[in-house]
Design brief:
It contains 14 helices and 19 strands. With 481 residues, the protein is α/β, with parallel strands linked by helices. Strands 1, 2, 3, 4, 5, 17, 18 and 19 form an eight-stranded mixed beta sheet that branches. Strand 18 and strand 19 form a beta hairpin. It is globular. The protein binds zinc ion. Zinc ion (ZN) binds next to loops. It comes from Runella slithyformis (strain ATCC 29530 / DSM 19594 / LMG 11500 / NCIMB 11436 / LSU 4).
């Protein structure tokens, strides 16, 4: 049974009048660029959401904001630890480690009367850091439902926003407590409001690192098949040259972009193949402008030349990288640029075009992707977990993890990529690890995902910022190893 421990805003506000004394002093997070700013009001609502939830679901009638989590084992972002316990208080992890030590400390705090302790039994489960999706589009839905062109041209922004709120909820319930959302694809700055709605506790969803509109060279990223006499809206913001690029980067940052995304190449014009767009000097200018405000730049890049320019221009991650070469991957390694391979998007698109997976031979594009992904691994490139989810269903983010294993990564390396590695790549200094003083963003799955990656789908518990959003109580005991 799913218990979604989230209450609509109205109820939270109502409860807050009664129980305001339960809230302690606000401390800002230590890394302000991407960290979720928690206003005293938001924090109050969150604490009270949980208080409300407990009285609603467990009928304890008591304020609780201290948890002892008892899974069979903990993946801390790097390794598996059998029998570990995790103690969470408010929005942070307080202590992680051996059962005896953690339980003694947690119970001591209970007897001092400061924080009544709630025991969360997660028998049969592996507890992991909340997963970090590296490449999502919450404003898109699968292309076999509606083509990208039609989503951009025919869907009202209000419709797209309504869908996005549901996508955010599905993402969180699947254990993804953070997403790097790489462009609204024609939905203007609507990711800003979505992020705020999640922050303010109006809707459940993951923490969001947002790119807003993204940047493209003029004419390069639009719905296709129209007469050149018609001006078709683009999927991102067009800008070129010195002044216009600086203005566009600053405008996007001013409106709320945490990261600047550029399209370093695209299938533009009549030839239908990916060709570079921005000049190297233009990319350097974008990167410098974004960096001066403390924000990274990342690039959509599929062609070898587009990738080369994005790497030399200073982009921190490359998205897709389909036509990378051993030389390009070696350059990425040397410059410390991570690859977000988006294997699941390519796999999904090939199937939308008619490929019957498991029956037909793999199309050329898929065969090549296997080869280039292997080349990236061999070159030691840091792999950022990110599936380009939106091309396929939100909440099905695990599909990329399964494909990373299918294409040659060890399951434990995939888990590292989706937690501690992505946190590092995205400058999230308090996420991606189960560690003292880190955000209490946690997911428990039944089974042993470091052996069977698909176990990441068996989500039983999701906590974000110390608030429980999901807790399924019927658990089967873990089979003996
Ligand atoms: Zn994308």
């Amino acid at each position: 049974m799913n218990k979604i421990l989230f209450l609509p805003n109205k109820r939270l506000v109502k409860i807050s009048h009664k129980l305001s004394s339960a809230v302690s002093v606000w401390h800002p997070p230590s890394f302000p660029t991407f960290a979720e700013y928690i206003t005293p009001f938001t924090r109050l609502k969150r604490s009270l959401a949980f208080i409300g939830v407990l009285s609603l679901i467990h009928c304890t009638g008591m304020a609780q904001n201290s948890f002892l989590l008892k899974p069979d084992r903990v993946f801390d972002g790097l390794e598996i630890h059998e029998g570990w316990r995790v103690w969470v208080r408010d929005e942070k992890i307080v202590l992680v480690g051996e059962q005896k030590t953690v339980e003694a400390e947690a119970h001591k705090s209970q007897t001092s009367g400061r924080n009544p302790l709630q025991i969360i039994d997660l028998k049969g489960c592996t507890l992991l850091p909340g997963f970090i999706e590296g490449h999502s589009h919450l404003f898109l839905h699968p292309y076999n439902e509606t083509t990208w062109d039609d989503q951009v041209l025919k869907e009202a922004r209000s419709l797209r926003t309504a869908r996005a709120t549901l996508h955010a909820q599905k993402t969180l319930m699947a254990g993804f407590t953070t997403v790097r959302d790489l462009g609204t694809e024609g939905a203007e700055f609507d990711d800003v409001g979505l992020k705020q709605a999640i922050h303010q506790g109006i809707i459940p969803g993951p923490r969001m690192i947002i790119a807003t509109k993204a940047l493209i060279a003029t004419g390069s990223y639009a719905p296709k098949g129209f007469s050149p006499d018609i001006d078709v809206p683009q999927g991102a913001e067009e800008a070129d040259g010195h002044d216009r690029l600086i203005q566009a980067v600053r405008r996007q940052i001013g409106k709320g972009a945490d990261v600047i995304k550029i399209y370093a190449d695209y299938r533009w014009g009549l030839m239908g193949e990916a060709r570079p767009t921005f000049l190297l000097d233009e990319i350097k200018l974008i990167v410098e402008t974004a960096r001066s405000s403390g924000r990274p730049t990342i690039a959509h890049a599929g062609s070898a030349e587009g990738m080369r320019r994005a790497i030399l221009g200073g982009c921190e991650t490359l998205e897709h990288g389909d036509a990378g070469t051993p030389e390009i991957f070696s350059l990425m390694h040397d410059k410390g640029v991570a690859l977000c391979p988006t294997l699941a998007a390519g796999d999904a698109v090939a199937q939308y075009r008619g490929w019957k997976k498991g029956t037909d031979q793999e199309p050329e594009r898929i065969k090549n992707k296997r080869i280039t992904f292997k080349q990236a691994l061999d070159a030691g490139v840091t792999i950022c977990f990110g599936g380009d989810v939106g091309v396929f269903s939100h909440g099905d983010n695990a599909r990329e993890m399964e494909m990373m294993v299918d294409y040659g990564m060890k399951p434990i390396d995939v888990l590292r990529s989706a937690t501690s590695t992505n946190a590092q790549i995205f400058h999230l200094s308090q996420a991606g690890n189960v560690k003292a003083n880190f955000w209490a963003d946690l997911v428990a799955v039944e089974g042993r995902p470091e052996e069977h990656i698909s176990d990441v789908r068996k989500v039983k518990f999701v906590m974000k910022n110390g608030v429980i959003f999901r807790h399924d109580t019927s658990l089967n005991p873990m089979p003996a190893k």
